[in-house]
Design brief:
alpha/beta; Aldehyde Dehydrogenase, Chain A, domain 2; 530 residues; 19% strand; 37% helix; 21 strands; globular; Aldehyde Dehydrogenase, Chain A, domain 1; 14 helices; seven-stranded mixed beta sheet; 2 domains
Amino acid sequence: MSQLQPVLIDGQWRSSLGQESFTATNPATQEALAEKYPLSPWDEIEQALQSADRAFREVRGWPGEKFAAFLDRFADESEARTDALVAMARLETGLPIEPRLKNVELPRTTNQLRQAAAAARNGSWTTPTIDTKNNLRSMFGPIGPVAVFGPNNFPFAFNSIAGGDFAAAIAAGNPVIAKGHSSHPGTTRLLAEAAHAAAQATGMPAGFVQLIYRTSHHDGARLVSHPLIGAAGYTGSRSAGMVLKEAADAAGKPIYLELSSINPVFILPGVMQERGEKLAEEFTASCLMGTGQFCTNPGLVVLLAGERTDAFIQDVAKRFSSAPVGTLLGGAVLKSLTEGIEKLRAAGAVSLTPDTPPSGSGFCSPNTLLRVDGKAFLRTPHALQTEAFGNASLIVVAKDEEELLGVVERLEGNLTGSLYTAADGSDDALYDRIVPTLRQKVGRLLNDKMPTGVAVSPAMNHGGPFPATGHPVFTAVGIPAAIHRFSMLQSYDAVRPHRLPAALRDQAPHGELWRYVDGRWMTGDIAVSS
């Protein structure tokens, strides 16, 4: 009988205090995997919190270089474990080793870590701001221990102990308590081993990085609202996220949520005429990539009625029906997808693809394309924006431009919004009518491309209005902007020069730190007037 895997608490791998356990499941076979993982009781979570607080008391005031060294070493340690990581992630998620896990997602993850290291080392993310006349100075600094809840669909890039939230929190100078996802605990354990090795090699205090695998819902809410927590990051279902948000809000604790997005795509008449067949191919590939299990999956397509629109829909339906059916990440994903599709049908959507159950032993659902007219959408917009997370999408066909604009008005907040328009400018007038409203509904506006890819770039916004996220100001991807979620603004009024943080003194700590001094950006020293 397999023993419980240890938790990482206070700088040590140790046996959990928990008596309850769980196992991950191979989604390709629906078979439980051998390793058993604990559900941490509150006493264990409290120990992690106390340890994280001790670590924070030690590292606050440390220069960014110290955190950068840890992040760089962690990236190296993760790459050294590539074979073990991708093999475990393949077993727990069913995602292909190549190219997805080995060639795309793991390099993206180590790239994120190194980008966060560069930002921590440079320090410009702290936005040092100096008013010499009033002797008033401010900058962003760490907020305190951060709890990170990772999702199921990115075992590396959004992992609670290696992904974007983790990297951003560390770059700000905060200890992290990672709450792993039950779908890939073994992958998370291997990443935690790499993080622990990096922490030891770079002199991080015990409790700087910690890992628990699962908590009760009640204890998860206690964690995000605990007096010692600075902030929390969560990626997952809207229902669970809102429970955590309610608890954090009641305690006045910041929590940053990525919850739900159907990512509307508008394909206008002119471009449909120019390259409808190519667009059908592009949309199908985007929607079914990774079995549709991306937070930026195009789950809603809005079209104007017409013969070419009908031909496009028929083409897409054929492509969906003939495309291979991928493996979903687990039984819970299959259940949620099935329920989402049924809610869309109950609201008036009609299936355009067969409901034939896929063959094979894995967690699978048939590729599903649904259609509804604009009038029905306007009648029940909330129900017809139900997220069907997986290999499914809904096409809305508006009878005219006014009805299409009505659809735009009734959209909920989303991570992305895409518009395809003709190269000859024939769609420009309609584009100009759509965009002012759509711009306020989405975090990232795209032209002539599907939303699925999320570049790890400083200019990326992986956020948006609710329910895409809990706050439209912040992004989960894009250093340095993502770091600000796990920071606080710290002001110094008439504080003596030798007591100021290095970034706020007259002499710049290094020549690449951008500071806003008396209304202008500069990198050099502040001239002292005689």
